[in-house]
Structures are given as structure tokens and as C-alpha cells.
Amino acid sequence: MTTVLDATVLLNYGRFEALWIPQRSLPPDRIVVPQVVAEVVYPPEAVRALGSTITEGRLRVHHSPSSEAEFAAVEELRQTRPRLGPGELASLAACLACSWSFASDDREARLIAQDRGIVLTGTMGILIGAVEDGIVDLAHAESLFRKMIGAGYRAPVRRLADLIDS
Question: 33, 5 in Cβ contact below 8 A?
Fold first, then answer.
């Protein structure tokens, strides 16, 4: 399945040079819309990580709207959700039109995705999946998770171990 990544997830992993985690734990077809690329302007580590990930072909840029269905989804979201940011709007429209999954931590975008039946994950879900799949060990994941929280990531828990089946 194709997964559209939002700026929130890219920034959480990119600022700690850990974009390799979603790359290994999400299905191989991962995309980003240009509006999201434009939102990733700081910190420099995240900008560099995103740029190299795209250049090396590990994340594909989807230029939207690419179909009538996607154009219609963009227009409908603009009218019904005027406060939605451009990256979230374009990402959600692509997911709706193409039946793709969505990786975001943006509260409003997640609510829309849930309401519309879009398969959804986020920073924490990706990290938990990476531990459960043996991509990263729990100690490393906990360390990264603490750094993310220290940098401003608002997580509903303080320890990943509380959510991981042992």
C-alpha cells in the first residue's frame, strides 16, 4: 500500500537523522506532496534528510492534484475544512482519491482521515511497528522517543514500552 507522509512525521524523524525508520517500517511505496516538502524548512538536519531521501528515491514526490477525483477532494476539503494547512490538504486529497494510507501527527488531519476511513499511522505508530518488526530495538526507540518529546512532540504516553506487546 502507498503511504503519504506529512511534515509532522518527517520532522520528528528527520531532525534526529532517523528517516530510515519509517523507510524500513512502512510499505515500499512512500510518497510526499510538494506542499509538505515546502513546509520542511527547519531544522537543517530534517531538511537535509528529506532532500537526500527524495534524491535517492526512497521517498517519491506526488504532484497533486493528478486526477479529477483528487482535484474534487482538494476542492471539497478547502470548502469544508478551511483551516487545514496546504500540506495536510494535499496529502489528504491524495489519500482520498487514490485510497492511500496517511502518516501524520496533525490532530485535525488525523480526525479527517479517521472520519473518511483513511488508514492512519503517525510517529508513534511507526516507531512501535519498527520495534515489533525488529527494525530497531526498544532501548533505541525509547531514546529516540524521549528526544522527540524533548523537541516538542506531544505524545499521549511517556514510554513506548507501555504500548508494545512483549
Answer: no
Total-model pTM: 0.94
What Cα–Cα distance (Å) separates residue 22 from each residue in 41, 69, 77, 89?
Answer: 20, 28, 27, 21
**pLDDT tens string 139-162:** 999 999 999 999 999 999 999 999
Q: Which of 155, 153, 156 is nearest to 10 (CA)?
A: 153
